[in-house]
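U., I forgot to send this yesterday:
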Amino acid sequence: MKKLGRNDPCWCGSGRKYKTCHMAFDEKIEHYALQGHIVPDHDMLKTPEQIEGIRQSSRLNIAILDEIERQIHIGMSTEEIDGIVREMTADMGGIAAPLDYEGFPKSVCTSLNEVVCHGIPSSECLLKDGDIVNVDVSTIYQGYFSDSSRMFMLGDVAPETRRLVQVARECIDVGLAQVKPWNFLGDMAQAINDHARANGYSVVREIGGHGVGLEFHEEPFVSYVTSAGTEMLMVPGMVFTIEPMVNMGRADIVIDDDDGWTVTTEDGKPSAQWEVTVAVTEEGYEILTY
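Result:
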């Protein structure tokens, strides 16, 4: 990459001279890089215009989850949930990002009970009294991607399972508290992992969050089992998901050999996950999807 001169146009596209725009910002990032930390490339940082595009996509994403929250009920099939997502996304001018993504056959992921993630909707899978289900909606709108999921509890859910869902939700909040410029992704990861473990749970190691916005999955990979002071430096303009998968039992997982997608807990105990998309700002963060 060509080194910019002080009076060159800034790389961010603002039209301002580099010295009055991002020069001090880049020097601060370089300071961390020289200390051996992982730092983001310029192409990982979203412009204000791009963040607005992601924000608009997120509005569709949230509206779809709100509609599922209104309609979800015992006896409903997960295929019906897929139909709501498919039709509502199209009606609003969007595209369901999961459909045909690396061969995924549906428009949404529906993960029940011991299914950790990537559950495939089916007309044969009916929601039952006592079930918990994660509905993971990913939306493309005018070329911008948004991603979020919520947990839903059906009927008379066992108290210990309700607690799992609640703690998984709390993990999002304790993670968000660590999202601020010049912190590290590892700061967020340790806060989340510590909270889950303090409540007797484990966090899935192999699957984490990701950058998002211009593509469905971008760098960086966002782990929730690493240590404070490690992983990538967080700087304004980064957009990524926070989505720890919290297991009632062990952290070990299994991927279904038949469909190649469905991830379950190895010990068959329940798992819970909430997902938000966040943008790092000068002051802290903005939640784009919830």
